[in-house]
Every structure is written in structure tokens, then in C-alpha cells.
Amino acid sequence: MLRALIALLVFLSPTLAFGQVPFPQLPQPITAFSFEGKDWGVEATTTPKRAPYHAPTPTSIPGARVIMTLELKALLESNKNVVIVDVLDSKARKSIPGAFWMPSGGDGQFFAAETRKFSSALEKLTANDKTRPIVFLCINSECWLSYNAALHALEAGYKDVIWYRGGTDAWRGASLEWKTPERVSW
């Protein structure tokens, strides 16, 4: 019994230590959709990528966690405190249910004014709770906008930043529900 408890604590310790919401446990291997798990051989970086943003992305992100489609679906079903931010820059957008839409929130170069505006918008979405889990997404694993937005959130001091690398292409690939997101002006 003690051994099982220790094993559980070791497994959960990174999550508990950083106050991060645990991802629901799913049967392994987890099904991937629309290349969300594809390793393009791109090195993770702590520097936001400048345009062009449509290019293969890394499989990890320093300081944040990566979530797969079915994990995200289970997380959203089990935790209503998660904030979802779609940063794809487009004229119209359908996204995952409950998402907020912040076009251009993943630009690769923020100056002081953009940094303040982005931080202020996140403060409103998270009720100024920097420990609240926040998920960033865009269209797919070949879009740097959500990666950049996650880096901007880390820079703003958010502690539980999650990158949904597969984006709406993976969500659609899993035949999950779509909604028109609430647009956030920033």
C-alpha cells in the first residue's frame, strides 16, 4: 500500500509542485489526429517565432505542457475552470466549444504595448488568476501562433500553460463539436 502511494506521489509530484491541473488518464497509446503527434524534427525554443507562422512546430514547449485532442476533451469535461484561447488570425472562426478567440494573440513579436494588452486580456479571461489552466490553440501542428501565445502567457507569469498543438484540425479530425468562439478584443 505504501509503495503504491509513493508511486502515485512521484507520478503526480510535477503536477502538484507547480499547481498544474492533472490531465485525465486515458488508455495508452492516445489516438492522434491530423498530425498532432508528428515529430517534424523542429527544436523547441523559448523565443516566439516571427512570420511566416505556417511551418512545422516542435513537439514540446519549454515551461508549458502539450495536450492531445482526447486528453483535452476529457480535461474540459472534468474541469470547468480551464480557459481556452484560440489565436488564429482569420476573418471568421469556428473553434472548440467554450473557446475565446484572440486573433493575432500569437504574433511573434510583441512590443511593450502589445504585451500589456495581451496580459490584460488574459487577466480578464482568467479572473486575474495566474494559476488557472489556460490552453492555447490555432489550426494545426504547422501553426506557430498558439506556440507563441503560450510563450507570451508564460512571460506574463501564468503557471499552468497548456499548448494544444493539434488545434482545430485535430479537433475536427476527431469529429468533435464546433462552435463560434467569443471574440476577445485586445
Summary, kept brief:
The protein is α/β, with parallel strands linked by helices.
Content-based structural category: alpha/beta
**Under the CATH scheme, which class?**
Alpha Beta
Number-wise, the strands total 6
Distance between the termini: 52 Å
Individual helix count = 5
* Beta-strand share of residues: 5-15%
Domains, number: 1
- CATH-scheme architecture: 3-Layer(aba) Sandwich
Provide structural commentary.
It is a single chain. This protein has 186 residues and is of the alpha/beta class. It has a single domain, classed as Rhodanese-like domain (Oxidized Rhodanese, domain 1, 3-Layer(aba) Sandwich), CATH 3.40.250. Helices cover 32% and strands 10% of the residues. The protein has 5 helices and 6 strands. The protein has helices at residues 2-18, 69-78, 112-125, 145-155, 167-173, and strands at 65-66, 83-86, 100-101, 134-137, 161-164, 182-183. Strands 1-5-4-2-3-6 form a 6-stranded parallel β-sheet, covered by helices on one side. The chain is globular, with a radius of gyration of 16 Å. The relative contact order is 0.23. Mean pLDDT is 90; it is low at 1-17.
